[in-house]
Design goal:
Blueprint: H1 2-13, H2 25-32, H3 46-50, E1 66-68, E2 71-73, H4 76-86, H5 98-114
Antiparallel strand pairs: 1-2
Length: 119
């Protein structure tokens, strides 16, 4: 996970180019604001629950285990899918697919921007 965090931090440096290791943070930002992510049917988006970084901290990117609504989840991609399935009422996306990579690249930037830490 440290390697992933390091890679995501490196993505911040090339964000202006919009692409890092195949991940497109600009596309991830669109997904984060999309009510149809994963075929969502609730009308909610990731921003509904996480506006201004609510419930995120810098440690969000590096945890080894997550607890979401009392449920243990093994990875950040798993957390994303949990939210898609429960809050958005959609179907999880491929954990190693382009949409997930784009979303995680954006999350790295979003969390950093909303944590009060220098960027």
């Amino acid at each position: 996970m440290k390697t992933i965090t390091t890679l995501l931090a490196a993505c911040l440096a090339v964000f202006a180019a919009g692409n890092c290791l195949g991940a497109d943070a600009r596309h991830g930002k669109l997904l984060f604001a999309s009510p149809t992510l994963g075929g969502g049917t609730s009308g909610k988006t990731c921003l509904t629950c996480h506006e201004h970084g609510r419930d995120f901290s810098p440690e969000t990117l590096s945890r080894k285990q997550y607890l979401v609504m009392g449920n243990p989840v093994a990875s950040l991609a798993g957390v994303v899918n949990f939210c898609i399935e429960v809050a958005l009422r959609g179907e999880g996306i491929a954990e190693n697919g382009k949409e997930m990579n784009d979303l995680l690249a954006y999350l790295a930037i979003f969390i950093k921007a909303n944590s009060g830490e220098p960027q």
